[in-house]
Amino acid sequence: MRFSLVLLAMVLTRPGLAATGVASGEHVEAKPAARSSASEVAADVIQLKDKAAISGKILAEKSDQVVVDLGYTVLVVPRSQVTKINRSASPAAIALRGPVVTTEVKGGLYATAPTPPNERNVRELVQQLGEAVVQVRTPGGLGSGFILNEEGYLITNFHVIESETQISVEVYQHHGAQLERNSFKQVRIVAMNKFADLALLKIEDAATKFARVLLGDADALSVGERVFAIGSPLGLERTVTEGILSTKTREIQGALYLQTTAQINPGNSGGPLFNLRGEVVGVTNMKLTFGEGLGFAIPVEIVKYFLNHRDAFAYDNDNPNNAFRYLEPPSRTKTAAAKP
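The structure assignment produced for this chain is given below.
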């Protein structure tokens, strides 16, 4: 494989390195030939196309590439060649972030877990996931959202940012043992779909990496399964509500929604609905105002479809709301009267 041969050439130009496995379907690893210690940090493993793999420490991840430290060589891997990333972590990082989960990158924008993570309680999951849930503010109101990757791409509802161009995002980030509120004012609209009530945003003025969520599988949910939402109902940021999945196929105006007893209120719009594996299974977007425990979320499959085809929904400055006007069908009475 051409990619593997190039990697071999790069590795062997560095003295003191041993490389193994360069053919398609083999494992590629670079390490100092005479260094071995029980205290070494386990390497991240990047699975490539054609069943090849690279072991090393990931230094940075971008939408189009992954930067990997192979020991004495830094390798830039095109994101198009990556199919899966297996991360390692120190015990301290594991305690903070939770168990390390194998992730599979989809289109360089979001990640999923090929093998479902173990279920955990809500308290542990909130500690791990809360940093990736944000508050989206506009001059006309506020809503919620969640971050898809370290570059600052995030999902929210279309109706949260409808007719708005001045958007800010508030993120709570860990600094040591504390959470600090950071507000980002330069937020770009990347894509939006009015009819699916989804919008993709990008934080532009960030010099740091963001915590992100995994997208799950709403079809795998069972009615009665426990779920929970994180958002900013009525502006009360980082609010957690828990409930069960009432049904997976609630039809409203021709679309199917997840119905849940988790409390959903104004300000929750655009926030994530999680399962107990810590995966996003829906995007909360509405409730019935005359009842309690009647909240609804957009299934995550619709979100994935929107993200995978985001080019078709790209934001247009000349037509900021991508609005469509459907003409009324001709009336039979009027058509008959118009005939001579």
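Interim note for the steering committee: The mean pLDDT is 79. The domain at 133-203 is CATH 2.40.10.10 (Thrombin, subunit H).
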